[in-house]
Amino acid sequence: MNTKIISIEEGNASKEALKEAGEIIKNGGLVAFPTETVYGLGGNALDETASEKIYRAKGRPSDNPLIVHICRIEDIFPIVEEVPETAKKLADAFWPGPLTMILKKSEKVPDTTTGGLDTVAVRMPGHKTALAFIAAAGGYVAAPSANISGKPSPTLAKYVAEDMGGRIEMIIDGGEIAIGIESTIVDLTEEIPVILRPGYITREMLEGVLGKVDVDRAILEAGSKQAPKAPGMKYKHYAPQGDLTIISGSQEKVVAEINKKCEEMKKRGEKAGVIGTDSTAARYRADSVKSAGNRGEEAAIARALYRILREFDDEGVTVIYSEAFEDEKGSGGIGQAIMNRLLKAAGYHIEQV
Ligand code: TXA
Ligand code: MG
Questions:
Q1: For the chain, N or C: smaller number of CB within 10 Å?
Q2: Sign of the alpha-carbon torsion through 276, 278, 281, 287
Q3: pLDDT exceeds 80 at position 232
């Protein structure tokens, strides 16, 4: 299959381009598109064969459900059994935006889209091109992140093309993505809402609107034996090709330990990469050193993380050491989302020094 790539600057989509992309979805095909979090791999959420095509293109197990993307709040009604008060409040506060809600699904949503679950994940993304594309596509676009299953989610169209080129009909290139990690997922089917995947919308932000919000225990405990409630969270994920280890501790000890490990690896003929921060990057001696940004600016670190992991792949780095990015505000800030993704990318391999 020939994958057509078109560039659309946010807010500048031509009618023809949107129509072409929308028609592909309406005809059962797949289009990758930008959202504010990561690139999505879209297909018609109400067409079971389209969901099957998404699973196949990603190489993703079909028990891992897809998020249904909508472009108007009211479009939620036909696809869920009921819209609880909690969902109305969250939609008012955070949609369009990086928040996905889990609700009881209606008959309209095929089982293939929800991986056989009786619930559905719904999100209205905060990206103008995404919203216009969803509208042109008929209003319901199922979209996982547009990467081969297991690899870091793409934040640049070139990485979408690398993974999906030849497998899908079209890629809409919207440039570099603003947020860089996937949406927060909150389950509203329980009495107390539960965060199944941390993200840019933090626990504090949700609690500000809803009162008490829990966090799935499987997220809080690294490597927990308890199965996470979001099926996708159980898989090794976001992983670069190089073997990634997180080194946690005081700055001095971390720098010394990582430099020691890099030296050992060099002797073994490995190509070492390091993820540091603006204040430490210059002190590392490795084949490739990248700063995730200023430690105080979590949003910038979130934006850089997947790109850095992909760049190490481009460079053929075989072992990677990363500083830890603790969430200093407890379990609430984006630091938790960053560490959650980094831990999964490392297969929970973290060393304390
Ligand atoms: O930011 C995002 O959410 C991106 C962009 C493209 O919108 N999408 C994304 O989709 O991250 P994906 O498929 O890579 O991750 C969806 C996660 C998976 O962990 C999946 O298991 C979970 O959502 N999920 C989907 N439906 C669910 C449901 N009904 N119950 C529990 N978890 C669900
Ligand atoms: Mg994903």
A1: N
A2: positive
A3: no
Residue 224 confidence (pLDDT):
65
Alpha-carbon dihedral sign for residues 150, 153, 156, 161: positive
Q: What residues have a C-beta under 5 A from ligand 2, the ion?
A: 145
Ligand 1 atom with the smallest distance to the CA of 60 is 13
Q: Which of 239, 263, 75, 13 is nearest to 147 (CA)?
A: 239
Would the pLDDT of 12 be above 80?
A: yes
**pLDDT at residue number 50:** 97
Is a pLDDT exceeding 60 seen at residue 330? no
* Best mutation site among 58, 100, 102, 177 for ligand 1 pocket (most ligand atoms within 8 Å of CB): 100
Instruction: Average the pLDDT over 6-33 and give the result.
Output: 96
Ligand 1: which of 160, 182, 233, 334 to mutate, judged by most atoms within 8 Å of the beta carbon? 182
Entry pTM: 0.95
∠ CA 130-186-134, rounded to 5° = 15
CA nearest to 103, candidates 35, 36, 194, 204: 194
User: Average pLDDT of 127-141?
Assistant: 98
324 half-sphere exposure, CB direction, 13 A CA radius: 21
Assess contact for 292 and 304: CB atoms under 8 A: yes
Residues 21, 14: Cα–Cα separation, whole Å: 11
Contacts of 180 (CB under 8 A, 6+ apart): 37, 38, 155, 302, 303, 304, 305, 306, 307
Q: What is the pLDDT of residues 54-105, one digit of tens each?
A: 999 999 888 889 999 999 999 999 999 999 999 999 999 999 999 999 999 9
Q: Which ligand is nearest to the CA of 66?
A: 1
Show the ligand 1 pocket: residues with CB < 6 angstroms.
35, 37-38, 40, 64-67, 100, 102, 114, 117, 119-121, 123, 125, 143-145, 182-183, 185, 196-197, 229-233
